[in-house]
Amino acid sequence: MERLAKSTREVRPILKIGTVTIGETPRTAVLSDIRSLMTTDVQIVEKGALDDLSPAERADLAPEAHDEMLVTRMRDGREVVLGRNRILPRLQHRITELDREAEVSLIALLCSGAFPPFECTKPLITPYQLLRGVLASMSVAGRVGMMVPSADQIQPIMAGYADLGHKMLVMGVSPFAGREGIARAAETLRGKVDVVFMNCFGYDLVMKSIVRQTTGKPVILPRSLLARTIDDLLNGFCSRE
Q1: Residue partners of 196: CB distance under 8 A and separation at least 6
Q2: N or C: which end of the chain has fewer CB within 10 A?
């Protein structure tokens, strides 16, 4: 009886986290990769900036002049390009919805783009800061390779990381156009870089493996970084139970 009571006390409730994507939900493939890398069992509440919008409303979110472009995919698999400044209010709205849910322990943004600070009372993880932090912590003798979804993003991305002082080789290759393009881009990077950053949540674990095997170099993936960060944070929550 005493052993049974002890076992009952050690059962921990499943923690709940929120995720916000710049596209539509569900993001089943993204969350499947994230779950596979975590040791903590979680319930995930998804919110999408494009959820419940009409085609005309989505068209209004296209990039304007000098607006940074973001690339995501629709529920049906179509690729869509959004303007960062245009999508900000929608993202803040979704973050606020999750922030108001009492059982949500933390919130994660499923986009590696750079954003201004959002209003949120709970821990909010922005993958851009994770990627930037890793790159800032590294001393790289040669060049840093980086994959981004579109060639139009190359110059803004390079400008955004220029202050870190790395020599960079940035390539535009869509994660939504098949893995053959990823393999070709990895072949181009082979022998030219010392580490590769795959700078988009559309890149998955299989693509990461392709790049690592082709280049023979370490590969940093937003999905992996986010999963392990969430896991560490949630283990902290569990330890307080």
Answers
A1: 144, 145, 146, 147, 186, 189, 211, 212, 215, 217, 218, 219, 220
A2: N
Residues pairing with 31 in the sheet: none
Give the DSSP H or E segment for 208.
Answer: helix 205-215
> Can you list the residues of the chain whose pLDDT is less than 50?
1-2, 4-9, 11
At residue 218, the pLDDT reads 97
Beta bridge partners, 104, equal 16
Pair 213, 41: CB distance under 8 Å: no
CATH architecture for the domain at 130-220:
3-Layer(aba) Sandwich (3.40)
Q: Count the Cβ atoms, other than its own, within 10 Å of residue 187.
A: 13
Q: What is the pLDDT of residues 227-237, one digit of tens each?
A: 999 999 998 66
